[in-house]
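Fold it.
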Amino acid sequence: MLRTICTLSLPLALLLTACTGDDIGATDTQTGTATDSDPTTSTSSTTTTSGATTTTAGTTMSSTSSTSAGTETDTAATTSTTTGVEPECTKEGEADDACAAEVPFCQDGKCVDCSGAGGDASCSALDPNAGVCAEGSCVQCTMENAGACVGTSPVCDTESSSCVKCTEHVQCGDVACNLVDGSCFAIDYVLYVDKTADCANGTGAVDAPFCTLVEAFAKIGEPDNLAAAWTVRVQAGTYSAPVHQTPDNSTIAVLSQGGPTIIRSSENAAPGLTTGQSSVLFMRGLVFSLSSSSGLKCSGATIFGDDVQARTNEDYGIETVDCDSHLRRALISQNQEGGIASYGAGSTNIVNSYVTANGTALSEFGGIRSAQGNALNVLYSSVISNDGDVVASIQCVDASPGEVRNSVVIGRTNMPSVACDNAVISGSVVDDGEDQGDGNYPANSNDLKSLFENAVGGIYRVKALVDDLPSPIAEVAIWLTGDPKTDYDGHARAAVDSMPGFPGADVPAP
């Protein structure tokens, strides 16, 4: 009976000593060693190891585990067995529906993003159209992975990390951009022209260029070559020939490199360049000058002119008959009979361009004529100081409905400057502007010096300040989604939907 009372009332260490007769003062002081005890009689125990202490309680505990200093034990494989915690996902190395969209992949039982999985390979398996892993997200492309963009979306928009259509030739490297469908021309169909090359051995290759555009057009017109879309890269210089004409049914891009490429006809009354029927012609950096006829004539075709010039020709700068013409950042200036004359089916589209100082007091019109069903659309362009016996700036004769928006239309002679009932004019500085449409600012040739700098080479730069105050035309134009984000010189516009800004081809330099 005395032994039983002792067992129930004393701490375990004293109990064992008292009841077994051991010396109470003798204790085990070995560091890091756990003392075995009877699991059926212990009420608590403390096991201390270097850097760790484990306490267990209860009379049913069957074992105590300890870890030596500096030793780690991997328990990931037995977590769900020993703790009851289930894995987040089960499709190891793959996308798992159990995972959230931002961490769609399963790795070691956890949901992770692509950087924690297989990178680009994981993205490609998840969505072939977004096969690039960038900062943990699957996207179509990055600046470093721009080659992922092909077909009709060959350009990487680095802001959205998505593949988009090309809109400028420079985006396609050595080949042209097909501005119709947004694809890049094939690298297999490129010809080179350099007037200083060895003309006797020219083949059109980069190391053996043709000397003339006439040779390049002839090669493209061969039956076996006509079906392809060709890029013709022309070295800067003046190219003169009796006739420059693209083949019928051809698709050609003529791109200047190294500076302006001047094209003219050496034959009396012949245009500098003529398009073949049912052809498509893309141009960049070409100058049509000093021809005894029109600088460029389009007949039953489609033309795209970027950064082109047509100036000082004896007839029109550009003449079109049954054509769709698209001009961006063009300069049409000092052509004797008028700047642009468009007749028949099709449309004339002028964006970010200058049409200046064309026509004379003896010519029927000065700046632009749209007639015989042609549709005229002018956007962010400056039609300034043109002259004519009937109409100075814009004349429409039996034309289709059109639009003049966010532009400057001021004639050299004030009355009449515009005669175009079929075109809606808005957001523009225009002669007698109060009568032309909504949101226009009235001005005439007397206002040119106050609103613009003196013209240089046909270019009118707008003034940011007039009499030390913000220009009165600074908020005439209204930018809409899809409008050009830059001006003639590449300066940024206030490209926010419905944001007011300067009309015409120029905004003040930053």
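The CA atoms of residues 150 and 331 lie 33 Å apart.
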